[in-house]
Design a protein that fits this description.
The structure holds two protein chains of two kinds. Chain A has a single domain (6-65), classed as Ubiquitin-like (UB roll), CATH 3.10.20.30. Chain A is built from one helix and five strands; from the N terminus they run ββαβββ. Chain A has one helix spanning 21-26, and strands at 6-9, 12-15, 38-41, 44-46, 61-69. A five-stranded mixed β-sheet of chain A has the order 2-1-5-3-4, with no helix packed on it. The radius of gyration of chain B is 20 Å and the shape is globular. In chain B, 38% of the residues lie in helices and 16% in strands. In chain B, the strands form three sheets. Chain B has a five-stranded parallel β-sheet with strand order 5-4-3-10-9. In chain B, strands 6-7-8 form a three-stranded parallel β-sheet. The chains are: A mainly beta, B alpha/beta. Chain A binds chain B through residues 9-12, 28-30, 35-40, 43, 45, 47-48, 63-71, and chain B through 19-23, 29, 42-48, 50, 52-53, 56-59, 67, 69-70, 72, 82-83, 85-91, 157, 206-207. Strand 5 (61-69) of chain A pairs antiparallel with strand 4 (40-47) of chain B, so a sheet runs across the interface. Chain B: 1-deoxy-D-xylulose 5-phosphate binds at residues 158, 184-185, 206-207.
Chain lengths: 71, 256
């Protein structure tokens, strides 16, 4: 069995190419403090103030969400 | 109408809450919400598109209306609790329309998971507005668990069937210690009026307006339906009789 080298972002596997959560978001055009965006790391909400500096490790699961139309 | 409604500590001038989903386009959505007179607009919480993200509902609605996030689509208490916490972080707001569905075919609430999620979120400081079945016992248990209101369905989500079990809704309203908001099933304005006549504190709807041929006109109809039902409820309707009762005087008839 080979070691895990990926993370799961919004349900999709990707190579672990970022040092911290803030870098992952910045690469998607979401700078720290973007209104209306929330992040969970491994099932727990990560406050926006902690995006920068919270390290990512292989096997991590990240959810990035925003409000959308809803009933 | 001077009839302030307090929901989860918020004073609202309208007893109609409206959804933001499924309108023909953004402008029709905004015009319909405006025409409805609603002050509270529901939104869902979804993964951002991995290609980036389009215009934000926060920018579109924020400031003008109070946003109420839902946990639509969640099937377990765990999913719903995380979604609610993400919503609080995204919107900086402490209330949630809690939805935990039992299956994707009926979209019927899963009462067991709903109660579990309600208790957990109440303990976490949320004002919880659970979407639930029209079951008086489940509604009481949700209130006991600390829900700020209960939101029984009138009929299945999106069905437009109206209020399928008016006697159950009436019973829930009569004994609920928290406001009862009829959520789901409304098809047209008379359904909204009926819900209010049965004693509901408010009505939450989406599809009946969004998918109407003229959503803006239907939104105005819903506003009036809710107001008419509320007025009729507070006016005290006449008893229902099984026989005729003449409305004109019986004395002084010509030829008597």
């Amino acid at each position: 069995m080979s070691a895990v080298t990926t993370i799961r972002v919004n349900g999709a596997e990707e190579a672990l190419g970022w040092g911290c959560v803030g870098d992952l978001l910045a690469a998607r055009g979401i700078p720290p403090g973007t209104r209306g965006v929330a992040v969970a790391l491994n099932g727990a909400v990560l406050r926006a103030a902690d995006w920068t500096g919270t390290p990512l490790a292989a096997g991590d699961t990240v959810e990035i969400v925003r409000p959308f139309q809803g009933g | 109408m001077d009839d302030v409604f307090t929901l989860a500590g918020r004073r609202l001038g309208s007893r109609l809450l409206i959804g933001s989903s499924g309108y023909p386009n953004r402008q029709v959505m905004l015009d319909a919400i405006e025409a409805s007179g609603a002050e509270v607009v529901t939104v869902s919480i979804r993964r951002i598109s991995l290609e980036g993200y389009a215009e934000s509902m926060v920018d579109l609605l924020g400031g003008r209306w109070t946003v109420l996030p839902n946990t639509a689509g969640c099937q377990t208490a765990k999913e719903a609790v995380l979604t609610a916490r993400l919503a609080r972080e995204a919107l900086d707001i402490d209330w949630v329309k809690l939805e935990v569905i039992g299956d994707r075919e009926t979209l019927h609430p899963d009462s067991e998971e709903l109660l579990r999620a309600t208790a957990e979120l109440v303990g976490d400081g949320f004002q919880v507005l659970p979407y639930c079945g029209d079951d008086p016992v489940v509604c009481r248990k949700l209130a006991d668990a600390g829900a700020a209101a209960v939101m029984p369905l009138g009929a299945p989500i999106g069905s437009g069937l109206g209020v399928s079990n008016p006697r159950a809704i009436e019973r829930i309203c009569a004994r609920s210690p928290v406001p009862v908001i009829l959520d789901a099933g409304i098809g047209t304005a008379s359904d909204a009026a009926l819900a209010m006549e049965l004693g509901c504190a408010a009505v939450l709807l989406n599809t009946a307006v969004a998918k109407a041929e003229d959503p803006v006109r239907m939104a105005a109809a819903m506003k009036h339906g809710v107001e008419a039902g509320r007025l009729a409820r507070s006016a005290g309707r006449i008893p229902i009789l099984t026989h005729a009762e003449p409305s004109s005087p019986q004395l002084g008839l010509v030829g008597s």
